[in-house]
């Protein structure tokens, strides 16, 4: 299983899709039964945002990719069944978001996606933290 994941998961394609805000391509990286967990100031570890299934994750990515902001991916570590990286985002008004992401891979697809993110407290509107 890990050999198959190593051959079919292409981190460079994932990075390009994130940086290009390409929601349609991003969704193709996920298994149908994938789970996404997001932890931040408004969704603490005891009550994180949890999205189950490819359709829920697709709606999340469509929302994020529709926003007027830039995305930069770096500090990646990629293995046969896991990948981790940092995404740095910036809105035109100067608000910055930094996310640390860990992906558990199964047969070349993302089975579990964990994000821990922090927003600029001073310059960002609280309602934008989603």
From TrEMBL:
Keywords: Plasmid. Residues 16-113 form the SnoaL-like domain. Transmembrane segments: none annotated. InterPro entries: NTF2-like_dom_sf (IPR032710), SnoaL-like (IPR037401). Pfam families: SnoaL_2. SUPFAM superfamilies: NTF2-like. This is Nuclear transport factor 2 family protein. It comes from Azospirillum brasilense.
């Amino acid at each position: 299983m890990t050999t198959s994941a190593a051959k079919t998961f292409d981190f460079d394609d994932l990075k390009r899709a994130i940086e290009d805000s390409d929601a349609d391509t991003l969704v193709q990286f996920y298994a149908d039964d994938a789970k996404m967990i997001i932890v931040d100031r408004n969704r603490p570890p005891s009550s994180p945002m949890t999205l189950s299934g490819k359709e829920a994750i697709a709606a999340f990515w469509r929302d994020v990719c529709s926003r007027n902001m830039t995305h930069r991916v770096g500090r990646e570590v990629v293995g046969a069944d896991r990948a981790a990286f940092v995404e740095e985002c910036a809105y035109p008004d100067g608000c910055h978001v930094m996310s640390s992401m860990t992906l558990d891979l199964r047969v070349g697809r993302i089975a579990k996606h964990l994000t821990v993110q922090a927003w600029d407290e001073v310059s960002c509107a609280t309602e934008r933290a989603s």
